[in-house]
Automatic annotation (TrEMBL), chain A:
Protein name: Branched-chain amino acid transporter AzlD
Keyword Transmembrane helix listed: yes
Keywords: Membrane, Transmembrane, Transmembrane helix
Annotated transmembrane regions: 6-25, 37-55, 67-97
UniProt organism field: Streptomyces dioscori
Amino acid sequence: MNVWIAIGVTAVGCYVVKLVGLLIPAGALERPLVQRLAALLPVALLAALTAQQTFADGRLLVLDAKAAGLAAAAVALLLRAPFLVVVAAAVVVTAGVRAMSG
Amino acid sequence: MQDALGVGVAVGLSGFAFGVTSAGSGLTVLQTCALSLLVFTGASQFALVGALAGGGSPFAAAAGAFFLGVRNAFYGLRLSQLLALPRAVRPFAAQWVIDETTAVALAQPTRRSVRIGFTVTGLSLYVLWNLTTLLGALGAEAIGDTAVWGLDAAGPAVFLALLAPMVRTALERVVAGLAVVLGLGLLPVLPAGVPVLVAALAAPVALWADGRRRGRTESVGARDAAEEKR
């Protein structure tokens, strides 16, 4: 039930922000500070989410095979690899490290 | 054309990764598909299933997903001027206001091609995203334990790939670093889902600090500016 509540709230919220952008008059969100905050907010959220999903197991911090997988993805990004290769690198290296460590 | 193909492959693959991640996080196939059909903005969907898997409350999880979706309002603002849609059509177009459709539409030279680009990209990505989500969710059920195959690393890798092009300036690096410290540091002490929301505060805090620093640099003059460079 909780999952459906989360799905419903997210669906309504995400749809409303999309619609708001199309409906409000131009200029309302054009202030430089608002624009800069809107650009920085995803940076903060994505950075925190990447770190949590890599190093957290529930509420515990862990260092496991996923860290090696994410390091591989980071290297792929530095080498300007396409999206497909970045995600594949993370998956393959994580599986490989798990297989080796038993 | 090649760009369109590249976007299609990337979106299809993320859709598959999302289906696998969502099913691996304990959501049913129906719940997974409902998310792709109704939410249709990838980062928010990944964030939501990640937060739910971590034991977060539905509202904290939804709040994180919502804040990630806020950027779409700014895309809509740009698109609204270019598309010039009748008001009655806007509620139907809104669901397709996402990163990829905005990128394609903004690259078009005329209003007609903006509208065509937006509609074709929106429709094809919507179909592709939902199909690959279904395939991923069914695939994950067939695979069983997704962790054995390293598929639990797909979610964070997608986030990292989305994040990388956004981090260019020193300010952006500070925001990302501060958010990581807050997100991980607060994890053991705050309820699940809340640390991400606190980490989002890194954005306004860094912006405020940057504004103060600039103000001071300007008033003190060249000496501070020289120190900045060093």
